[in-house]
Amino acid sequence: MRYADLAGQQVSVVGLGTWQFGSRGWGWGRDFGPADANAIVARALALGVNLFDTAEVYAAGESERVLGAALRAAPASGHEPFIATKVWPTRVLARQVRAAAARSLARLGVERVGLYQVHWPNPLAPIGPVMAGMRTLLDEGRIGAVGVSNFSLARLKRAEAALGSPVISNQVSYSLLHRDPERELVSFAQTVGRTVIAYSPLAQGLLSGRYGPDGARPGGYRRANRLFATGNLRRASPVLDALVQVAAAHGATPAQVALAWVLRQPGVIVISGAKSVRHMEENAAAADITLRADEVAGLEEAAAAFRPVLGLRALAARLLNR
What we know:
Helix content: 40-55%
Number of helices: 12
Strand order of the largest sheet: 3-4-5-6-7-8-9-10
Strand content: 5-15%
Order of helices and strands: EEEHEHEHEHEHEHEHHHEHHH
Structural class: alpha/beta
Largest sheet: 8 strands, parallel, barrel
């Protein structure tokens, strides 16, 4: 496993995203459950994965509870867990941010988390009071660092000015099929020593190769994602074919190659969900894959030709983050 500096600590460049823990929309209670979560977290730590990302909104707090219980149940591994969680953007006052943090810490069963992130920007409320709450949490030692999520560069800079110290990370959707962070965020992070945390690096599983016009049909939350519409799955076929070709050359899976493509960038780490130990092992192993320049170019050429038809929700999300 490779590591990167985050808030003065060494964290794995592949982290475990835990939105799926407790979330019926990801198959919780049907495809997997608490015993699986415990096994996934224990295996992650054994492999050197120490970054665990959650949020108060995931399954109405159940993700935090499940993750906390799994970390307490995990055998000693020598790897200190680095927990990152998020506050929902309706917490617009300093006291609301502090109260939300207290609830998250209680659900996780810890006194401190390494990183506390603002989950989304709130265009209707100033960022100052939110950052005032974050500053108090920092001063009290209840959080190790402040991050944001889904922020444009301009919003991130305003948040940092309001905090009065670095906002060390910005967690954004970043994958071979969604390269918007490369416009400003990645270069900014590399220039000033910040970190981009890439979520959905597999485009919610589309880049795993499991789904396609003739493959498995998406269920749960994926049904609402226009990327999984039949027409878009057809349009993505050349990208999936390119991933399969590169994967064969490395003895890897398409998902591992898609993760390795994101991880090629300095200053970028990924979080990816897992619903089984096997998936966790595959994700962790992606950190050891080095893609050749011609392979990167071929993947990017195929991805550049991908023109999905987006729904109104996806378009609104893109406009919100400008």
